[in-house]
Write a structure and sequence with these properties.
single chain, about 325 residues, mainly alpha, 18 helices, about 0% strand
Length: about 325
């Protein structure tokens, strides 16, 4: 009883980790799980995945594995921290159990699975997951936020597959559905739209979307996501030929990625930095950046970044041979 009382006191103070520890000690792990579910969304929005991971680790495995919402939270955390295979395992368990029980959660699980398969380079499967997830979310009249996230993930997959017109339409649909005031989701969509605009050469539109994303991430103090926006802004400068500006943005992007502890963001920044450095003729420095980015991309199993880094290394060696 004393442990339960202490847990309540810590919860009122906002010390949720201590609250959960006391609930587990009081043999009330299910209550600790319920507490985690009530506060998880705000921590996901802030990008505090390490904190969420530490709290999930407080719970007995059977509590997480028997609760589909906690399984989806665990998968979300693992995806953002680079543990893609572990995320897929959680999602497979969730999808198998949700097929006949909870259509709304099934839709969310399929959308998350599309994200995982995109990271693993399984783009056709990822597109199928996202499309099926959106259909399930529509069937269940789910929150517009969840449906917007489904369209955002589908758009990201389409863009990766080079289907830029379809990707733009899906991003625009996501933006239309995103709830007012949801800075995190709106910023993610603006980042995605910017990436599509960069691919089709609309640098001004890309820069406008990136600026809106940057403002959102700065308000949310979400350094990992801010790093991605700054990385894309550096790409815009690179394509415009402003290499010095690109490298300045990349310095800030790497600082943000390091602050957030986001290995995937850091890998992306290093790869872009290497490509820009190669364009300026700093080939040896470029190779160092690209090889460091390749190593980090391998650690988080990001096939797109692995391919991009490998291509950058090959191109730089080719340029060295031409000198």
């Amino acid at each position: 009883r004393a442990a339960t009382t202490l847990a309540g006191a810590f919860q009122r103070l906002g010390e949720y980790g201590d609250a959960m520890r006391h609930l587990v000690a009081a043999e009330s792990p299910d209550e600790a799980g319920r507490l985690l579910k009530t506060i998880a969304d705000s921590y996901v929005e802030q990008g505090q995945f390490r904190t969420l991971q530490s709290w999930l680790q407080l719970l007995p495995a059977q509590v997480v594995n028997s609760d589909f919402e906690l399984l989806l939270l665990q998968a979300t955390v693992n995806l953002h921290l680079g543990s893609t295979f572990e995320a897929v395992q959680s999602l497979d368990t969730a999808v198998a159990g949700l097929t006949l029980t909870n259509v709304a959660l099934l839709g969310k699980a399929l959308v998350l699975k599309s994200f995982a398969n995109r990271i693993l380079g399984k783009l056709e499967v990822a597109e199928k997951n996202a499309t099926e997830g959106i259909a399930e979310l529509r069937k269940s009249n789910s929150r517009t936020k969840d449906l917007a996230e489904g369209y955002r993930q589908l758009a990201s997959i389409l863009a990766t597959r080079g289907k830029f017109d379809k990707a733009r339409r899906s991003f625009e649909k996501a933006l239309e559905l995103a709830p007012d005031g949801d800075l995190q989701l709106q910023s993610l969509i603006h980042d995605g739209l910017a990436a599509v605009c960069l691919e089709v050469g609309e640098l001004g539109t890309a820069a406008g979307n990136l600026e809106r994303a940057r403002q959102g991430w700065e308000k949310l103090k979400a350094d990992g996501a801010l790093a991605l926006s700054l990385n894309n802004l550096a790409i815009a400068y690179y394509w415009r030929g402003d290499f010095d500006l690109a490298l300045e943005e990349l310095k800030e992007a790497y600082r943000a990625a390091a602050s957030a502890g986001s290995q995937r963001s850091a890998a992306g920044v290093l790869v872009t930095q290497g490509i820009v450095q190669s364009a300026t003729g700093n080939y040896q420095v470029s190779l160092e950046s690209l090889e460091a980015g390749l190593e980090q991309a391998r650690q988080v199993l990001d096939e797109r970044l692995i391919a991009e880094a490998s291509k950058g290394i090959s191109n730089t060696y080719w340029r060295l041979g031409e000198c």
